[in-house]
Amino acid sequence: MSESKKIKTALVSVYHKDGLDAILAKLHEEGVQFLSTGGTRQFIESLGYPCQAVEDITTYPSILGGRVKTLHPKIFGGILCRRELEDDQKQVAQYEIPEIDLVIVDLYPFEDTVASGASEQDIIEKIDIGGISLIRAGAKNFNDVVIVASKHQYQPLLDILNKQGAVTTRDQRRWFAGEAFTVSSHYDSAIRDYFKK
């Protein structure tokens, strides 16, 4: 089982895009291919980088008012497949699932929406489903995948890219996984507190 892994394909789907351009520039320089959705894909392409639409892989559009975009076996299979398992490799080949080595995602601003005094309907729509699922999947498969779950992890990722290129060690991927679960647990706690009130 290889300690170091090269990032070849990155799924980028973020609400906050500030600070992302330096990472995208470095990943593009390293030959990393981008996958994305909606506004993030437009942002990536506006910087002059090619980006494949998630819908082109899943063959499904964004549906239910944007509630369902990335929730599809071709996306989650690409994140969760274990590179060292022959059966996993056979299945990703059989179902034409692209392996995803880096996931950069953040979550809808639930706490900010609550604090703004928004309506319950607006608050409920800021409960992230796809993002939190991508975070958990990427973190679970840290042996093969780098998960960046918040813009607070942009700088550590950029430091690695500048120092090592698009290659990470298992310890680095494990660190990002721990940070990802910190993000998800804080987020779920905020949602729980809202419902308890």
From TrEMBL:
Listed Pfam families: AICARFT_IMPCHas, MGS
InterPro entries (UniProt xref): MGS-like_dom (IPR011607), MGS-like_dom_sf (IPR036914), PurH-like (IPR002695)
CDD domains: IMPCH
Domain of life the protein comes from: Bacteria
Residue ranges of every copy of the MGS-like domain listed in the record: 1-149
Classification via Gene3D superfamilies: Methylglyoxal synthase-like domain
The protein's name in its UniProt record: IMP cyclohydrolase
Taxonomic source organism: Bacteroides caecicola
